[in-house]
Amino acid sequence: MHRSIVVLSAVLVCACVVKGQEGHHHELSEQEVGSVHFVTTCGAGRSTADKLAFDASFNKAVALLHSFQYEDTRSAFATIAKKNPNCAMAEWGIAMSHYHGLWRSGDVAAGRTAIEKAREIAETNTTTSEREKEYIEALAAAYAEDKADYGTRGAAFEKKMAELANAYPTDREAQIFHAVSLKFAASPLDKSFSNEKKCGEILEPIFKEQPHHPGIAHYLIHCYDNPVLAQEGVGAARMYAKIAPVSAHANHMPSHIFTRVGSWEESIASNIRSAEIAASQEKDSKNGEARDQRLHAMDYLEYAYLQSGQVAKAKAVLDEYRSFQEVPGLTLTGNYATGAIPSRYAIELKKWEMASTLEPMTTGVPWAQALVWEAIGEGSARTGKLERAAEAEKRLGELRDEALKKSEYWSKQIEVQRREVNALILERSDKKEEALAAMRSAVELEESMDKDAVTPGPVTPARELLAGMLMAQKRDKDALVEYTAVLKVAPNRFNALYDAAVAANRAGDDAMAKKYFRELTQVATSDERAEVKTAAAKLHEMEQAAK
Q1: pTM here?
Q2: Distance between CA atoms of 266 and 372, rounded to whole angstroms?
Q3: What distance in Å separates the CA atoms of residue 260 and residue 251, rounded to the nearest whole number?
């Protein structure tokens, strides 16, 4: 999928000021955040010049919103509201900045306050259009219930946005917000990805009309961020950072698709730039958003370095993370990365002793804490520390139950991890068949769900662990079947490629062995790991023998 960038000559004034690439403050242009055209009545009655200036500031605020630059979005809309106190849609924008539907977070109380203010202004300001009132009521639906979870809020918002989009079929912003609301409302347990397919059907034609719109590229990536649709998102992924180059999130988001298709160098480039931008914004961030973005990019970066065999760079990411001082306001996005980065490094590199001695997290969401306990459990089981492994399994059970109070999805994810640790304990206790049965149950549960966007992938897929157990029992053909299944969902995973090649080689399947050894040598951009040298040697040996 290829799309060209529309070069826009006009440089419009942004209502907000953010840190520029050269380290000084400057006003953002369309070329930096993308082009949006959101019709509003708030500029009515002004001179032509004033109306143009107002429309530019409002459109720029919406562009920031489409890239989830929520802190900057809030500042931009607050400036508009201060200058235009009768603009109900400025308060709508503030309320939108508090509703993080895809991140399943945000400030519900502050968002509700803003949307109620928008309603009040809309009632008293007779120039507010019916269409604008419907935008306000659609968002109000997401804030209606105090104790609603984010799935319920997303479904309520999607229903209202569908009605709005149907009522105003020529309103492209309504269509775009409806498309992303389908993702807000999508169940992570729906493996047919029906909402995500509808999202793509809405956005693809509009992207041809508006190739410089940040939201379209962004939301296509989110809706295609799954094993079924990922290839469809490559074009949008390669466009988004060009549309909004100063956005940390816009630079990171392409890596969701690059991860799904196993394009590690593209993922690395995306996340290096994203982390740099987020780091430059940290000193001005008042709520932890910039640190969230930085940690999120670093988790994806760590994953990509490990899959491409770049150990020293993976270690540098871990060391950088460990050097951070805590900042207030971290959300589950950054919190997840704090558990994932050290766990990935130890487990992916099979540093079992390091994994077994990781320091457990004592704060944060249960599913972030569970990552570390999973690593402790696996490392302990593999090094024969079965009491510590059993402690990890017990703690995972407790975290599973705690998570259930907030999210059925994450509770199930932690149960997968508990089953994995249990299976490894059984294997170490020489209960091989029981271990296989336990690991198969982990596979079945894990594959009943898709991964959440907060993570590039599990620390180790359950099916990859199952394949390793089969190899340990010298059931190499069976192991090869499992590794092949892993690679279908997670292309170019380093350990799966190498172990699949070894399993094929031991099973006498030279064609598959050569295929996977060759793919590993192509994926790995460094020979720091011994597996890369072994793969190259085995490939040479097999090719020579075939002559």
Answers
A1: 0.90
A2: 28
A3: 16
